[in-house]
Amino acid sequence: MSTTDIEQESAPTPPPSMSSSRRRIGDSVFSSLSVGSGLLIFLTLAAVAIFLTTESMPAVIASQEFSGTADFSLVKYALPLVFGTVLASGIALLIAIPISIGIALFISHFAPRRLASGLGYMIDLLAAVPSVVYGLWGGIWLVPKLEPLYFFLNTYFGWIPLFAGEPHAPMRNLASASVVLAVMVLPIITAVTREVFLQTPRLQEEAALALGATRWETIRTVVLPFGRGGIVAASMLGLGRALGETMAVLMILAPGATFSLRILEVGQHNSIAANIASKSAEASGVDMSLLVFTGLVLFVLTFIINAIARWIVARSGPKS
Questions:
Q1: Model pTM?
Q2: Which of 18, 21, 39, 269 could form a disulfide with 174 if both were Cys (CB 3.0 to 4.6 A apart)?
Q3: Could you state, in order of their start, the residue ranges of all structural domains in the chain?
Q4: Are 93 and 183 in contact (CB under 8 A)?
Q5: Backbone phi, then psi, for 210, in 5-degree steps?
Q6: Does domain 77-319 have CATH number 1.10.3720.10?
Q7: How far from chain centre, in Å, is Cα 140?
Q8: 289 contacts 57 by C-beta, under 8 angstroms
Q9: What is the percent of the chain with per-residue pLDDT over 90, rounded to a whole number?
């Protein structure tokens, strides 16, 4: 070993500069805030779950004392609301997803840049419209406009269970509520899907076009597979909005409590959120606890759907 190497090893290490010390403190503070923010989300969810469980126990106890079993009465009360909530949200997604994908593709791949920018801005503004405005618009203007369509569907497609029954004006049925929910979730699904489509690798699209693929073939083989996970995530965001929507459904839907698939009939369905909103002002005691129990059911239902969505996105990601 040379004398120079020995001198370099024996030389004292210079003390850390003031800037590096401040940088370490800043990193520690930022890391602590990030971890604390993440834990705050879990604590908030846990607090909500504990509150809903605790406040719904009086209804469980009262139901058990009344019927001998807590399951029968509570399930009999909650299941029709769950059925109406899921059915309305599912129909809304069936309407909104294809339209949202079409709008997102038009903005990201077909529209001129100026038109795409303005259209995207308008779509984002639709997401900021309050739900009570959608409820007023749907109940006063949209429902009368849909009546001829409902009579047409009932006349020519009444053999399908969804369009069976005898519709009568005003058409404050589940179909009208689902259409309004579709309009409400459409900007959410469109905005997320558009951003996902814009992230498609440009080289892959150009390679497909260079190999002779048409515009539609490029979208079908490159853009849509790449954005599959994003489409699922956007749809689940829209589904979460539809499941928890209150005012629009309350202002349009004539409530009922059945398991009927006839979405054109009035007074057959109701949603959990709309039922809570309509009865919470006058409820007290066990009745309020029963409403809290339905809120717990909606909380668990939303959690399960989000977990399934995360699983689907995780499986879709590596393939795309």
A1: 0.84
A2: 269
A3: 77-319
A4: no
A5: -65, -30
A6: yes
A7: 26
A8: yes
A9: 34
